[in-house]
Amino acid sequence: MKKLILSAALLLAIGVTFTSCRDEKKAEDVENSIENAAEATEEAVENAAEATEEAVEDATEATGDALENAANATEDALEDAGDAAEEAVDKAGDAVNNAADKTKEAADKAAKAAKDKVDELKAH
């Protein structure tokens, strides 16, 4: 009977030992899983925040570049328009001067022709 009680006590001790060790491992595994999930979530949130910050910086830089390019294009267009207007004024001035010269030449020719006619009529 002593062997039976000792055997039962031994089986009970072994059973409790294995059961209690197994429960601790599961509890540790669950705790580790929760910690790992929390760390992974924290890293994902940090990565998303960094990606968002970079996207905002890139968008801001692109907007600034676009505004600068638009300003440069406007400035160039204004300069070109000013140059074209100046050239048009110069051409108009040249055309007026040429017209005045041709009018003077025509008037001189007409006056000479009239004088020649008057001289011809006087001579007859």
UniProtKB/TrEMBL annotation:
Biased composition (Basic and acidic residues): 101-124
Entry keywords, A to Z: Signal
Annotated region (Disordered), positions in chain: 43-124
Biased composition regions of type Acidic residues, renumbered to the chain: 43-60, 76-87
Signal peptide (from-to): 1-22
Domain of life: Bacteria
Protein name: Late embryogenesis abundant protein
Annotated organism of origin: Corallibacter vietnamensis
